[in-house]
Amino acid sequence: MSFVDALLGRKFPPMIGLDISSSSVKLVELGQSGSGEYVLERFGAESFAKGWIAEGQIEKFDEVANVVKRVVARSGTTTRQVVLAMPQSAVITKKIVLPAGLSEEALEIQVEAEANQYIPFSLDEVCLDFCVLGPSPTSAGDVEVLIAASRKDRVQDRQGLAQAAGLQPVVLDIESHASRMAMGRVVAGLPNEGKDALVALFEIGADTASLKVLRDDEMLYDRDQAFGGSQLTQLISRQYGFSYEEAEQKKLAGDLPEDYETTLLAPFVDNLSQEIGRALQYFFTSTPNHKVHYVMLAGGTASLPGLKERVTELTGFASMVVNPFENMRLGSAVRESKLRREAPSYLTACGLAMRRFLQ
Question: What pLDDT sits at residue 178?
């Protein structure tokens, strides 16, 4: 720990979480005080041009790397260690059951043998990792082990982006795991610390909206649908004759013609709310559940005016916009007004930065 960290009473030095999605890169730097409070030191984002990253695959490495460098430089961070994530679509995960008490070497041999059955590539082509989750709930004397595998070229691309920005990758997570980690804090802030509550989390990105239904530490349901904020950007582009990039900038800046709210925004919010309602109905018909206690909205599109209210109206369930930084101490470099506007889009980046405190 550095002298500055000791002086400020920080328990851990800060760590960067870097969320690289199809539309942008988001940076969160978290520290922790001596009393155990999280401290949000910095946050920032930069957009990518459409098509630079498609379906989790980096198509324009140099261009994306330059944007990652820029968000790191503009943040003013001096922290070098970074946690990144792979998109769920690029990772194969499988839970297996193995005998308890195996040595690390024996575990590795067993994991590789099991992985051969589930991974449709040669093991030479993949990065393979595993972690012991705990005692098996169904088999006494055994443990449950989570295997995760991704193609080496996809992993190396993510690591290369961090290194191009002068950062040192220390952990590579999975995006959905990171967002669930950040949600743990949010759920803990609910009445009765959220115990036994069914929470429907909608993460609305540029191209997809994912529904995860969580109860305590368990994910009961996970489904993606092709609907996101880029559809509103395309509508703006067509309606007003802007390029896609101009439309996105004007949408984020709120710099649009007077008729935008009635002509485009209100119908889009209505359509999106109906999509959310349909996704919930699909969950109800495919599981024994018939209600959720909370609908939580995250992602850049979650803050659209009127969305939370329309979702509550259409579904009948309490709806709220997620702020992963709720009850965190804010560092001197953080602009609170900007944070209030943009917080829902930093759920995954926040979860990644939280990994430092779980080492």
Answer: 92
What's the first-to-final CA gap in the chain, in angstroms? 15
What is the C-alpha separation between 157 and 66, in angstroms, rounded?
14
Residue pair 235/268 in contact by the 8 Å Cβ criterion: yes
Burial degree of 55 (CB within 10 A; 0-12, 13-18, 19+): exposed
Residue type at 19? D
The two beta strands, 81-86 and 10-20, are parallel
> From CA 297, how far away is CA 57, in angstroms rounded?
26
Nearest to 215 by CA among 196, 191, 192, 241: 196
In this prediction, residue 6 has a pLDDT band, given cuts at 50, 70 and 90, of very low
Helix (H) or strand (E) holding 292: none
State pTM to two decimals: 0.89
Average pLDDT of the residues in 235-255: 91
Amino acid letter, 96: I
Query: Which phi and psi (to 5°) does residue 149 adopt?
Result: -140, 145
Please state whether beta strands 294-298 and 198-204 pair in parallel, antiparallel, or not at all (unpaired). parallel
Closest to 342 in 3D by CA, of 310, 308, 304: 304
List of residues 6+ apart from 291 with CB closer than 8 A: 198, 284, 317
Mind listing the pLDDT tens digit for each residue in 212-228?
999 988 889 999 888 89
